[in-house]
Specification:
The structure holds 2 protein chains of 2 kinds.
Chain A lengths: L2 E2 L28 H5 L15 E7 L5 E7 L1 H4 L4 E6 L6 E2 L7 E7 L2 H9 L2 E6 L6 H5 L20 E3 L2 H10 L2 E9 L11 E5 L7 E5 L7 H9 L6 E4 L14 H14 L3 E4 L2 H7 L5 E10 L5 E11 L22 E7 L15 H19 L3 H8 L3 H14 L17 E12 L7 E6 L5 E4 L9 H13 L6 E4 L16 H28 L6 E4 L2 E4 L2 E7 H6 L5 E6 L9 E12 L4 E11 L7 H20 L30 E6 L19 H13 L10 H9 L3
Parallel strand pairs in A: 1-24, 2-13, 11-12, 15-16, 19-20, 26-27
Antiparallel strand pairs in A: 2-6, 3-5, 3-7, 4-6, 8-16, 9-14, 10-11, 10-13, 14-15, 17-25, 18-19, 18-24, 21-22, 22-23, 25-26
Helix pairs in contact in A: 6-7, 9-16, 12-13, 15-16
Chain B lengths: L4 E3 L4 H7 L10 E3 L5 H6 L7 E4 L8 E3 L5 E4 L4 H6 L3 H4 L1 H8 L4 H6 L2 H6 L5 H4 L38 H8 L3 E6 L2 E6 L22 E7 L7 E8 L7 E11 L5 E9 L6 E2 L1 H7 L6 H12 L10 H17 L1
Parallel strand pairs in B: 1-3, 2-3
Antiparallel strand pairs in B: 4-5, 5-8, 6-7, 6-8, 9-10, 10-11, 11-12
Helix pairs in contact in B: 5-9, 10-11, 11-12
Classes of the chains: A alpha+beta, B alpha+beta.
Bound molecules: flavin-adenine dinucleotide.
Chain lengths: 726, 327
């Protein structure tokens, strides 16, 4: 038996006064930084098990086809091939580019042998018209590619809100009106680590071990239970380190199911990670959109009417786009109308991606706000402040404006003009998010030798979660972070949440705090016999416990733990009052445009972001920087390209799917909004990715008068906007 | 990738002897730094049964003659070229081109000969599943498909744009290459090295499959000539040229241009010299008027496809910026 810290606590946990904190709200280097930087961290990709097979997928190169035959004979005779299996047969159709296009799986002794064998599979198929663009999907005689039951067209049911006539009437009376159509391409998650699993089969009486690159250590056993033919409780999922998910790794997917199946069939461990090309083909994406947005303002710059017609372009999935007005307020709610529908193409379905739908909505809305400001001759920041309800946004906008040098900028209420083909401009954008918090558990174990373990089945996607799993406990017990071992990424640990919607911190941090607090009170009950003061009257700092107000009555940590005869296990759970999920952000960008060549160079980006108590300021700034970078890359470069004639995905390499690199990165300033003094925590990963590309587009407009209504802002786009298409 | 034999000959003759006289998809090919050939093999675009390495042929020297000319061995790495101490002063445009290529890893492994002989980067050519003229097929999907990166000069029936940065500058510098084959050595001016798709589809150069490019010779430049290379990368961190210009200008004492040479990169299946642009500069003082006129002359014969008309603006802008930097 171990000591149990269950039972009613003497007091509720709290994050404490910020001025009292020794560990949290500071820059905490990541506890796993050194193993990552030195290559010792084992990601799923790196797992090597004895006798392991390497599996590869054959993906049909065009989105739609009728399969005549899949001949596996030559491939099955290739050296090293142990398992080969077709997923389609003669007469089947490939309905879309994505998991439906996976034709076969091969497992061999080496990855090279698996790849060589794939090439020997003979597929006979007749290509069907591809349907990869919105225009192709909307043609009168377009083949129906929608997956909806009984669909007779590629258009989903429109979600209509508001009263178009009321909106029209308000717009007719507006002093300034802008109407634009925006085209936003599909973005890939482009995780550094591709999707995949390593599955180690086991006899019936032992657990199957699955290494997974997943955002849901806890959910993956259920996701694989049926394929593995056993109860989820006898599947152990491990994600010691993970190379990014951004919303694309919630479930095992087809690749996980196949890894499990091949492992079951062959009885050998199977390594099935997608290649980069597979990743682009079947691992999801952020939906594109086409939005026609009309917004009007009165002479004071207040938004008075808005109409939106939008198509979400999520391939065979629905896509996402929040309804208007995005973040900004229209004076009369009834003067807002929208019609949003999904247009389906025969392409990989969209998945959640870091603030699903929000960057798309931001792009159109911020553009409209900019243009109305210019029509009215109003300062861009002032125009925003007038139409944002939250004074948090107001102060954040002022803060980023100051940091970007807005007051000194020569043209704040009209676009500038290029001098000798060079122009500098500034743009802005805002964000909101509601990061949830829900049921999560954590065990904190304190051993007689002074060692401490904080354990919860969360996963660190690269966010820094592992570090606060230790740091919260260190803070509560007056220790340093290195004195607490963080254990995560294992489905056998106390359950926590799937990492999506920025819920990880808001869910797991309160549970960790609760466990640490219970451990502390259990230790205080022991200490009370020695130091005499009752539970609740101790201060834990600098590796000692002392009676509050009487520093002479104290014990070092090691002596406290020596009072334990066996390990103390404190079980914590989610406490709602430790969490609050309502956050805001503002961003500014300064760019230089060369109007002769179309080069857009982002010079500086600034974000100001609130989130309650910052658990780790370094990780928080890193998240904010990551958001700015991902938005910059989205705005400047990223674009999925299909050949429209035959339907080949051309951008299935990192050569052609262009991500920003070191040269694209501007000076970046991540400001934590310390005027937010809420005594609560929450995640914030999604908010900072929302407005960066909008601010860059605004800055381009502010620089030289070119309003880019298409993304990305590559030279062709800039030059065609300035001078027309040749 | 398909298994292949690696040949490591010790002499040029032996190397040539390993190579086939006629092209076939599985015939032996030359291996230099492997930065390009290995990728096309991995994607099964080429399937040579053997690679003949140039590693032991001692072609890796940069030799400056007394008069300002220089001979660069075929296996000199792009990094060595960029770092040669004389380069910055004597041939800054070539140094700039070398430094603009790929990433440090690619420059350290890729060679001058390999760079000049690299295969097209057209996304259709590089896609393992797409058939095209360049791969023995009967179509160029870029013509009516995704042609944002394609040629605006010299295209048809295939529309790739030549990827080599070095080739653009070397043409501007009046370079000559030395080529060794079964019949011995021949010298070919860079202006005659490349073929257009209308002349050949299974190769981009006049080299026959059993010939090896052994060195590049750059003659001394005209006294007083100043040159520059300006490359536009869509992704600044590393990218091939969306378009590029190599220019050389000589001015008289009065500041008027007496000699000029303008070569465009990234816009045609070979480095594309535009004599008309040079003519627009000669006899004029360096200034925005002459630069604009040169730009107009440079693109006068452009024949863009659906999605690459912007390259016309881009070339004009780049030429303006390159000349501005030289003024
Ligand atoms: C990611 C990436 C980015 C790149 N970016 C750029 C860029 O920005 N600009 C640019 O110019 N290039 C760029 N390159 C191309 C790169 O410069 C070439 O791949 C490299 O220079 C090839 O040299 P190599 O020695 O590795 O040639 P190899 O790959 O060994 O050979 C390339 C081809 O040339 C033939 N060949 C090689 N040497 C000779 C010879 N001496 N005689 C006859 N034939 C020969 C080979 O048979 C083969 O067909 C990039 C490449 C990569 C992979």
């Amino acid at each position: 038996m171990s000591h149990s810290a269950k039972g009613s606590p003497a007091s509720e946990p709290s994050w404490g006064k910020r001025s009292d904190l020794d560990v949290l709200n500071r820059d905490i280097p990541r506890v796993d930084g050194p193993v990552k930087a030195t290559g010792q961290a084992i990601y799923t990709h790196d797992v090597r098990l004895p006798d392991m097979l390497w599996a590869r997928l054959l993906i049909h190169p065009v989105p739609r086809a009728e399969i005549e035959s899949i001949d596996l004979e030559a491939a099955s005779e290739m050296p090293g091939v142990v398992h080969i299996e077709a997923l389609k047969e003669s007469g089947d159709t490939v309905r879309y580019h994505g998991d439906d296009a996976v034709l076969a799986v091969v497992a061999a002794e080496t990855p090279e042998q698996a790849a060589d064998a794939l090439r020997e599979i003979r597929v006979k198929a007749t290509s069907l018209p591809p349907v990869v663009t919105r225009a192709q999907a909307l043609e009168d005689d377009a083949p129906v590619v929608s997956r909806r039951r009984n669909a007779d067209a590629n258009v989903g049911r429109a979600n209509e809100r508001g009263d178009a006539a009321r909106a029209d009437a308000a717009l007719a009376e507006a002093v300034a009106v802008v109407e634009r159509t925006f085209e936003i391409p599909v973005q890939h998650h482009a995780c550094l680590e591709t999707h995949g699993h390593v599955v180690q089969p086991a006899p019936d009486d032992e657990p199957v071990t699955v290494y997974a690159s997943t955002q849901s250590v806890g959910g993956t056993p259920r996701g694989l239970a049926r394929t593995l033919g056993r109860d989820a409780s006898r599947i152990r999922v491990l994600t010691p380190h993970m190379g990014g998910g951004f919303g694309s790794k919630f479930g095992p997917g087809l690749e996980g199911a196949l890894a499990a199946r091949v492992a079951n069939t062959t009885g050998r461990p199977v390594h099935l990670m997608l290649t980069r090309a597979d990743e682009f083909a079947i691992a999801g994406n952020r939906s594109g959109s086409r939005q026609t947005l009309k917004v009007g303002a009165d002479s004071e710059g207040r938004l008075v009417g808005l109409k939106l017609e939008a198509d979400k372009l999520g391939g065979v999935s629905g896509g996402s786009l929040p309804g208007p007005p995005y973040i900004y307020t229209v004076a009369d709610d009834d003067a807002v109308s929208s019609k949003i529908r999904s247009v389906h193409t025969a392409t990989d379905g969209s998945r959640a991606m870091r603030a699903p739908g929000h960057p798309q909505a931001s792009f159109a809305m911020e553009a409209a706000v900019d243009e109305l400001a210019y029509l009215l001759g109003m300062d861009l920041v002032e125009m925003r402040i007038r139409n944002l309800e939250s004074d948090v946004h107001h102060r954040q906008l002022r803060r980023v404006a100051e940091e970007i040098g807005w007051a000194e900028h020569p043209h704040r209420d009209r676009p500038g003009t290029a001098v000798n083909g060079r122009a500098v401009g500034i743009g802005f954008g805002v964000s909101v998010w509601g990061p949830g918090g829900r049921s999560s558990r954590c065990d904190v174990t304190v051993r007689p030798d002074g060692s401490v373990v904080s354990a919860t089945a969360t996963q660190d996607l690269g966010t820094g979660a592992r570090t606060y799993v230790a740091a919260i406990v260190a803070e509560e017990l007056g220790l340093t972070v290195d004195m607490v071992e963080a254990r995560i990424g294992d489905s056998d640990l106390p359950p926590s949440v799937t990492s999506g919607g920025s819920v990880t911190t808001g869910s797991s941090a309160p549970a960790i705090k609760d466990a640490a607090h219970k451990a502390r009170e259990a230790l205080e009950a022991l200490v009370a016999d020695v130091l005499g003061a009752p539970v609740g009257s101790y201060s834990w700092k600098g590796g000692r416990v002392s009676v509050r107000g009487d520093a002479s009555r104290s014990l070092p940590w090691i002596a406290v733990c020596a009072l334990l005869r066996e390990p103390l296990v404190a079980q914590g759970e989610f406490r709602d009052f430790l969490h609050e999920g309502r956050i805001h952000g503002a961003q500014a960008a300064r760019v230089e445009v060369d109007t002769l060549t179309g080069r857009v160079k982002v010079l500086k980006m600034v974000t100001c972001q609130d989130q309650g108590l910052p658990l780790n300021r370094l990780a928080l700034r890193s998240q904010i920087n990551g958001g700015m970078i991902q938005a910059l890359s989205y705005g400047l470069l990223e674009q999925r390209v299909f050949d429209e004639q035959d339907g080949f995905l051309l951008s299935d390499t990192l050569d052609l799917y262009k991500l920003a690199g070191a040269q694209e990165i501007p000076e970046m300033v991540a400001l934590i909004d310390d005027e937010d003094e809420r005594p609560s925590v929450c995640g914030m990963a999604e908010a900072p990715v929302i407005p960066g590309h909008s601010a860059i587009a605004g800055a381009i407009h502010n620089a030289c008068g070119a309003r880019l209504t298409r993304m990305p802002f590559t030279a062709d786009n800039v030059l065609e906007t300035l001078y027309g298409k040749i | 990738m398909k298994d292949f034999d690696l040949k490591l000959p010790d002499s040029l003759d032996a190397a040539v002897g390993e190579l086939p006289s006629e092209y076939s998809r599985d015939g032996a090919q030359v291996l230099a730094g492997g930065q390009d050939i290995v990728t096309v093999m991995k994607d099964a675009i080429e399937r040579p049964a053997a690679l003949v390495s140039l590693q032991r042929l001692g072609l890796d020297a940069i030799e400056w003659d007394g008069d300002g000319g220089v001979t660069i061995g075929a296996t000199v790495t792009i990094q060595a070229l960029a770092e040669d101490p004389n380069m910055e002063f004597s041939l800054p445009a070539l140094r700039e081109a070398a430094r603009s290529i790929g990433s440090p890893q690619i420059r350290s492994q890729g060679t001058v000969g390999g760079n000049l002989n690299q295969r097209p980067r057209c996304p259709y050519y590089r896609h393992p599943s797409v058939s095209c003229f360049k791969k023995g097929g009967s179509v160029c999907l870029a013509e009516f498909g995704f042609n944002k990166y394609a040629a605006i000069f010299g295209g048809g029936p295939s529309y790739y744009s030549h990827p080599s940065d070095l080739a653009t500058v070397l043409l501007m510098l009046g370079a000559t290459v030395s080529i060794t084959g079964p019949a011995g050595e021949r010298r070919v001016p860079l202006s005659e090295l490349y073929l257009l798709p209308e002349d050949a589809l299974d190769t981009e150069t006049v080299l026959s499959p059993d010939e090896i490019l052994t060195s590049v010779h750059i003659p001394a430049q005209p006294p007083g000539a100043r040159s520059s290379y300006l490359k536009f990368k869509e992704r600044a961190s590393y990218d091939f040229a969306l378009a590029a210009v190599a220019v050389s200008v000589t001015r008289g004492d009065d500041g008027v241009v007496t000699e000029a040479r303008v070569v465009l990169g990234g816009v045609a299946p070979k480095p594309w010299e535009v004599p008309a642009a040079a003519r627009a500069l000669v006899g004029e003082p360096m200034g925005p008027q002459a630069w604009t006129a040169a730009g107009e002359a440079a693109v006068a014969d452009a024949d863009p496809l659906e999605h690459n008309g912007y390259k016309i603006h881009l070339v004009k802008g780049l030429l303006f910026r390159a000349l501005e930097a030289l003024a």
